[in-house]
Amino acid sequence: MASRTVLPAPDDLKRRLLTLAALDVILCPEEWLRYHTFIPNWAPNVSLAKINNGAGDHLFVLFAPEGVILKGFDHESELSPHAQDEYAVWPGIYDGTPEALLALLEDEALEKEDVTFCIWRETGDSQWRAGKVRMPKGADDGSEFLLGTICETPEDYADWAEGYFDMPIPIEPVKALYAAPAISVKAIRSLNPERNVEEVLPELEALGITVTDRDRP
After folding, report:
1. 115 CB-contact burial (10 Å; exposed 0-12 / middle 13-18 / buried 19+)
2. What is the CA angle 107-5-66, rounded to 5?
């Protein structure tokens, strides 16, 4: 799966997913409508990032002491269990996945069987890995599409968010949050003038985002 080569190192991936989730918090009051979500304490010592496009496709990324595992599902993929004569995970997707990482997917909320690709990286490893999957000619496992939603640059996110949230996105606050886990109240208001800042603050702080100039009128 060539797509895994575009993934950054685990710490950088975690940082980016936190940033995307923080931006979505600011831009979208309705949690169920957010595209990017991050739950720092999903389980003891485990964080979970979720990407859900609301159209049946998702990407779950779990960070644990043992490493990182990504499970993606493209509902239109030929590799979907729902596309088979008998519902089953496509052969090879989970082959070779370390048991400690695979066990993280056992929670019912993660829908382990609904999968079209899986990528992992154990702690101490130098590269991302995936099972040897024999793809039918012309098939698409959805990895390029779903991994592409982990917006690499502030410009990528701003372009995407303008279309998804149907609102203008000033680039400077996005750049600042990509650069460091901190944002000012002024920047929050510039990103979304309609947003209730007091509602945003606890969610951002739960993500480890420092909010500055809070005491200014």
Report:
1. buried
2. 40
**pLDDT, tens digit, 9 for 90 and up, residues 30-77:** 999 999 999 999 999 999 999 999 899 999 999 999 999 999 999 999
Q: Is this structure's pTM higher than 0.90?
A: yes
Report domain extents, the chain: 2-211
* 58-64: strand order across its sheet: 36-43, 46-52, 58-64, 67-73, 117-122
Q: What is the pLDDT of residue 6?
A: 76
Better-predicted residue by pLDDT, 6 or 216: 6
Alpha helices per DSSP H over 85-208: 99-102, 143-147, 154-165, 171-179, 185-191, 197-206
pLDDT at residue 118 tops 90? yes
Are the beta carbons of 66 and 100 closer than 8 angstroms?
A: yes
Helices then strands, counting H and E runs in the chain, come out as: 7, 7
SS3 percent helix, strand, coil of the chain, rounded to 5, is 40, 20, 40
Q: Are 55 and 22 in contact (CB under 8 A)?
A: no
**Tokens coding 44:** 């003891």
Q: Please check whether residue 164 is in contact with residue 192, taking contact to mean a CB–CB distance below 8 angstroms.
A: no
